[in-house]
Design brief:
single chain, alpha/beta, Rossmann fold, 6-stranded parallel beta sheet, 11 helices, 9 strands, about 15% strand, globular, binds NADP nicotinamide-adenine-dinucleotide phosphate
Length: about 290
């Protein structure tokens, strides 16, 4: 068995970010400063790290990062008021509410409050619905990253059996929809799924989105399967048992350096696209005014 291709997320992310540079310059020439607002509620250290990484990645590329940090005791109403302000702020092009929020907050209600045109992480039901129907502007960033990695490495989903382990609204469900739209036959698994290893054994493509370290074992895989590990657990450990899966896979994402960096690059891409769309709308309105 040949060694698998290691799907290098850092390389893909660099490619995505390089592809945004000219658009950012063009936006600035037109006096538009692309801006992503991130909202962190509470002091969960992992969430704080994720938000910091996203903000830093923005600034490094010339995207403004508006970082809002709310106290642990924030109520749903207080959070909704902040989201509303950002929705109304002409200078903000994307809003990211870091998941998870403290228990007292109705997270779904907060996600739904994000204006759909600024929903750069596909968390609203509109965003999700559009993704599922195949015309979404901004699919959730981790599912978008998984598809981007496949595209960059020329891995087609068409006619393949994809087994997605996990069905969360931000990851398992939208990545299943994206793969289905790419003409894969998709099996979406969850904590009630019976005979999980047998299902994984049938997969040409395995997406791990479980949130459990080293959960998917090499012995579950079909020889030559493509393994995409979205998992990110304490100690930089994925949801896939890397060493045993490495021996069976034809291609595999490492953790770290796989899906994670591409996820951030997709967030930047969606923010820049949202700013570009705003500029085009403004230009269109100005033209209409002139022609009146
Ligand atoms: P989540 O909301 O906790 O969802 C986990 C999913 O796994 C659920 O659908 C759950 O099933 C399923 N599951 C749990 N135990 C299972 C079992 N024994 N067998 C089969 N399925 C099982 O997690 P998430 O937010 O989707 O995140 C998943 C992983 O991705 C985490 O490691 C997270 O850190 C990582 N992540 C990475 C990025 C990135 O940028 N790389 C971004 C987001 C998330 P039920 O629905 O039945 O409960």
């Amino acid at each position: 068995m040949e060694k698998p291709v290691i799907l290098d997320g850092n390389r893909v992310a660099t490619h995505v970010k390089d592809g945004l540079k000219a658009t950012i310059v063009k936006l600035k020439e037109n006096h538009v400063q692309p801006c992503l607002a991130t909202i962190l509620v509470g002091d969960d250290p992992s969430s704080a790290t994720y938000v910091k990484m996203k903000g830093n990645a923005c600034e490094k590329l010339g995207i403004e990062s508006k970082r809002i940090h709310l106290p642990e005791q924030t109520t749903t109403e207080q959070l909704l008021a902040v989201i509303q302000q950002l929705n109304n702020d002409e200078n903000v092009h994307g809003i990211l509410l870091q998941h998870p929020v403290p228990n007292q907050i109705d997270e779904r209600k907060a996600f739904e409050a994000i204006a759909v045109e600024k929903d750069v992480d596909g968390v609203t039901s509109w965003g999700y619905g559009q993704t599922a129907l195949g015309f979404g502007q901004y699919p959730s960033c981790t599912p978008a990253a998984i598809i981007k990695i496949m595209d960059e490495y020329g891995i087609s989903a068409e006619g393949k059996h994809a087994v997605v382990v996990g069905r969360s609204p931000i990851l398992g469900k939208p990545v299943s929809a994206l793969l289905l739209n790419r003409n894969a036959t998709v099996t979406t698994c969850h904590s009630f799924t019976a005979n999980l290893p047998e299902l994984v054994k049938q997969a040409d493509i395995v997406v791990a989105a479980v949130g459990k370290p080293n959960f998917i074992k090499g012995e579950w895989l079909k020889e030559g399967a493509v393994v995409l590990d979205a998992g990110y657990n304490k100690g930089n450990i994925g949801d896939v048992e890397y060493d045993t899966c490495f021996n069976k896979a034809s291609a595999i994402t490492p953790v770290p350096g796989g899906v994670g960096p591409v996820t951030i690059s997709m967030l930047l891409k969606h923010t820049v696209e949202s700013a570009e769309k705003k500029l085009l709308e403004t230009v269109q309105k100005e033209r209409e005014l002139v022609s009146q």
